[in-house]
Specification:
Elements (H helix, E strand, L loop, with lengths): L15 E5 L3 H12 L3 E5 L11 E3 L4 E3 L10 H13 L2 E3 L4 E5 L2 E5 L6 E3 L4 H8 L3 E3 L10 E4 L5 E3 L6 E8 L2 E10 L7 E3 L5 E3 L1 H4 L3 H15 L5
Parallel strand pairs: 1-2, 2-9
Antiparallel strand pairs: 3-4, 5-8, 6-7, 10-11, 12-13, 14-15
């Protein structure tokens, strides 16, 4: 897989972009492009935005189905977090952490600040969607699946291979299985771009953290509008 590809041409308000997947990476890219006047259409197979940051409401409670909280290490992400806090869609994670021991569960403080959507994780993703056109219950079916970019800028096609570890989210009376939750080998490049006008981003490129997903999508968005990254 190539480590460097030609930079994408800068988009203008006259351009239109389709983004498949309304998780954090897709939303971060879409939000940035929409702020620059680019027409964006989002497509997702679920009934709403969020991906592994989605929530499910029940009469007695609301459950976060994927990430319950996230941490901040990157300066750009910290700056974005401050804006989200000012908007009221993110708040510090109030729950103590616990660690199992021979004598039972003990409170554990690793000194790491954590944050979550307010009042639920999906509040952040719904804030990012804003007025962007979102088409739900829309699945992209491709066989074989696209798995890599060739050096010439074209797509190298191959059948899907299970290269990530599954994880689980809890729903009332049943389990929700996230089939692709952790990349086995993150690619630090952040995103990939094809000269055919197709790009890939997501936490599979930088690591399975909310911050990594945002950095990937935001980095691609910045590249598409011609900013330095």
């Amino acid at each position: 897989m190539p480590q460097h590809l030609a930079a994408p041409p800068a988009l203008t308000p006259h351009d239109a972009v389709a983004i498949i997947g309304a998780g954090m990476s897709g939303l971060a890219c879409a939000h940035l492009l929409a702020q620059q006047g680019v027409t964006v259409s989002l497509f997702d197979k679920a009934r709403g935005p969020g991906g592994r940051m989605s929530s499910k409401g029940r009469p007695a409670a609301t459950l976060d189905l994927g990430a319950q909280a996230f941490t901040v290490r990157n300066a750009d992400f910290a700056q974005q977090l401050a804006q989200w806090q000012d908007a009221g869609c993110v708040a510090p994670w109030p729950t103590c952490t616990y660690q199992a021991s021979a004598s039972g569960w003990q409170t554990h403080d690793d000194g790491q600040l954590r944050y979550t959507g307010a009042p639920r994780m999906s509040a952040l993703t719904r804030y990012l969607i804003d007025a962007i056109a979102l088409h739900t219950h829309t699945a992209l079916l491709s066989e074989p699946r696209i798995v890599a970019l060739e050096a010439g800028g074209g797509w190298r096609m191959a059948f899907e291979r299970r290269c990530r570890k599954p994880s689980w989210g809890l729903q009332p009376r049943r389990h929700h299985r996230w089939r692709y939750a952790q990349p086995a080998k993150p690619n630090g490049q952040g995103y990939l771009y094809s000269q055919q006008g197709i790009a890939l981003c997501g936490d599979s490129w930088k690591g399975s953290r909310v911050e990594a997903a945002w950095l990937s999508g935001n980095g691609l968005g910045r590249a598409l509008i011609g900013r330095s990254v």
